[in-house]
Amino acid sequence: MLLLFASCGKERLDLNWDEITVSVSDNLEKVIFTSADTGYIVGGTRFKRGLLLRTFDGAKTWQIDTLNEFSFYDIDVFNDNSRIYILGHYGHLFQTFNSGQTWNDRVLEFQEAYWNMDFITPDRGIAVGGGAFITGGMHLFNVNQEGRDTFLEEPLHELNDAAMVDDKVII
User: Fold this and answer.
1) What is the 3-state secondary structure (H, E, C) of the chain?
2) In what order do the strands lie in the sheet with 124-131?
3) Which of 38, 79, 80, 115 has the highest CB neighbour count under 10 A?
4) Beta bridge partners of 96
5) Rounded to an integer, what distance in angstroms lies between the CA atom of residue 37 and that of residue 44?
6) Confidence band of 1 (pLDDT split at 50, 70, 90)
7) What burial class does residue 121 get, using C-beta atoms within 10 Å of its C-beta: 0-12 exposed, 13-18 middle, 19+ buried?
8) Do 117 and 130 touch, CB atoms closer than 8 A?
9) How far is CA 42 from CA 95, 117, 118, 131, in A?
10) Residues in contact with 171: Cβ distance below 8 Å, sequence separation at least 6, in sequence order
11) pLDDT tens for each residue of 99-153
């Protein structure tokens, strides 16, 4: 029996981090950058406010917006930052089709905390959530340019994450 041992050299990566200070004391839940300059953070304080932070200069400065009185947990951005979805407590799904100039607050039928959403296209997505590991919900939705949604609710225990593979497979 012949045994061959081989190793591959691994380079050491030295990563440099810059600490960024944001002038809010609320929880920050999700960060997404769509380019080196453009990024978004959502969060807030439950029963007090939902926050959206936006940067267009690589996190040097942040624009802070309060959109409602319930905290946010997830954000997805499409179409060169023109279409943005923000998901939060009590089933609030905020949508914009004009880069945040105006927002549409769509309240999902199952009014618990929604923790996560995923999209297979900018028009088709899923939102999941629940409370205290007892109640939960899953909403499949279609969104057209006018912002009208259709929902399919499935009663479940609390779900914290989901991914859509296609229209028929949800993980």
Assistant:
1) CCCCCCCCCCCCCCCCCCCCCCCCCCEEEEEEECCCCCEEEEEEECCCEEEEEEECCCCCCCEEEEEECCCEEEEEEECCCCEEEEEEHHHEEEEECCCCCCCEEEECCCCCCEEEEEEEECCEEEEEEEECCCEEEEEEEEECCCCCEEEEEEEECCCCCCCECCCCCEC
2) 114-121, 124-131, 135-143, 149-156
3) 115
4) 84
5) 23
6) very low
7) exposed
8) no
9) 13, 13, 16, 20
10) 162, 163, 164, 165
11) 888 988 877 766 677 788 888 887 778 787 777 666 666 666 666 645 445 555 5
Q: Cα dist. 7→3, 10, 11, 12 in Å? A: 13, 9, 13, 15
Give pTM, 2 decimals. 0.77
Nearest residue to 33 (alpha-carbon basis) of 19, 18, 54? 54
